[in-house]
C-alpha cells in the first residue's frame, strides 16, 4: 500500500481537479455571467442546463464526468504508481472521493459547487462500471416515473453500494475499499441534496420533466407494448 504521504498527495490533487467549476467557467467565458447568481445557484450541469441551455448543460455534464474519470485513471496512478493492487484501489477510491468533494465544495469557487452526481459517475465508470449501470437504470426508472432529477439521483446513489454488496457478497464487499468509497460518495450526494429532500417531502420540488411529458412517454411506451 502506498505511503500516507502519497495518499495525501493523491487526495489533494484529485480535490483540486474535481473542484474545477466547469459551469462557472463556461458561464463567465461565453455568457459573461456568474451562474452562482442564477437558478439554483449550484455549479453543476442541471443548473447549467436551466440557465445556459441544454447544449451547454450537456457539455458541463461531460466535463464533470471526465473529472471523476481522470482523478481515478490518471491522478491516482501517476502519484501512487508503486502500489500493490489493493493499494491502488485505496488510492483510486481516495482520489474518486476527493474529486467528488472538490466538485461539491470547489476551492476555486468559494467552496460552492454542484451536487456531485456527474463526477461520482465518472469515478464509478472506472472503479465499478456494473454498479454504475445499475444506478443509471434506477435513475432512469425513477425520473420517468416521477419527473424528479433529484429523486432519481438520490435513488441511484443509494442503490449503487447495495448493488455492489449483492454482487460481491457481504464478506468480500466489507473488506473492499470500493464499498467504503461508495458509501462516502452516497453520503456526500445525500448531504448535497438535503434541500431537495426537504422539498420532496413538502411536495414543492421542481420537476425537471413536466407531468405532461412523463405522461406522454408512458402512453407511448404502453402503445408500443401492445
Summary keywords:
mainly alpha, 226 residues, single chain, 12 helices
Structural domain tally: 2
Radius of gyration (CA) equals: 18 Å
How many DSSP helices? 12
Largest sheet, in brief, is: none
By helix and strand content, what is the structural category?
mainly alpha
Low-pLDDT residue spans:
none
Mean pLDDT: 89
Order of helices and strands: HHHHHHHHHHHH
Give the overall silhouette: globular
Report the sheet-strand fraction: under 5%
TL;DR of this structure?
With 226 residues, the protein is mainly alpha-helical. It is built from 12 helices and no strands.
How would you describe the overall organization of this protein?
With 226 residues, the protein is mostly helical. The protein has two domains: 126 residues, no CATH class; 99 residues, no CATH class. 77% of the residues lie in helices and 0% in strands. The chain is built from twelve helices and no strands. Helix 7 packs antiparallel against helix 8. The longest helix is centred in the first third of the chain and has 26 residues.
Topology:
Elements: H1 4-18, H2 22-31, H3 45-52, H4 54-79, H5 85-104, H6 117-127, H7 129-146, H8 149-168, H9 170-174, H10 177-192, H11 194-202, H12 211-225
Helix pairs in contact: 1-4, 1-5, 3-4, 4-5, 4-6, 5-6, 5-10, 6-7, 7-8, 8-10
Amino acid at each position: 500500500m502506498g505511503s500516507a504521504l502519497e495518499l495525501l498527495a493523491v487526495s489533494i490533487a484529485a480535490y483540486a481537479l474535481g473542484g474545477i467549476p466547469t459551469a462557472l467557467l463556461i458561464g463567465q467565458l461565453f455568457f459573461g455571467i456568474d451562474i452562482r447568481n442564477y437558478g439554483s445557484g449550484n455549479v453543476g450541469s442541471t443548473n447549467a442546463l436551466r440557465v445556459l441551455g441544454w447544449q451547454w448543460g450537456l457539455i458541463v455534464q461531460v466535463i464533470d464526468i471526465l473529472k471523476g474519470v481522470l482523478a481515478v485513471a490518471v491522478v491516482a496512478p501517476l502519484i501512487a504508481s508503486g502500489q500493490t493492487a489493493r493499494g491502488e484501489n485505496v488510492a483510486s477510491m481516495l482520489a474518486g472521493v476527493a474529486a467528488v468533494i472538490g466538485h461539491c465544495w470547489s476551492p476555486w469557487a468559494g467552496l460552492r459547487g454542484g451536487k456531485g452526481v456527474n463526477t461520482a459517475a465518472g469515478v464509478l465508470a472506472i472503479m465499478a462500471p456494473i454498479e454504475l449501470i445499475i444506478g443509471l437504470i434506477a435513475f432512469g426508472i425513477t425520473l420517468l416515473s416521477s419527473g424528479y432529477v433529484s429523486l432519481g439521483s438520490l435513488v441511484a446513489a443509494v442503490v449503487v453500494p447495495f448493488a455492489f454488496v449483492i454482487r460481491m457478497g457481504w464478506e468480500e464487499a466489507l473488506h473492499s475499499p470500493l464499498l467504503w468509497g461508495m458509501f462516502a460518495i452516497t453520503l456526500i450526494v445525500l448531504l448535497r441534496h438535503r434541500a431537495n429532500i426537504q422539498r420532496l417531502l413538502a411536495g414543492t420540488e421542481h420537476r425537471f420533466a413536466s407531468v405532461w411529458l412523463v405522461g406522454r412517454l408512458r402512453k407511448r411506451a404502453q402503445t408500443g407494448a401492445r
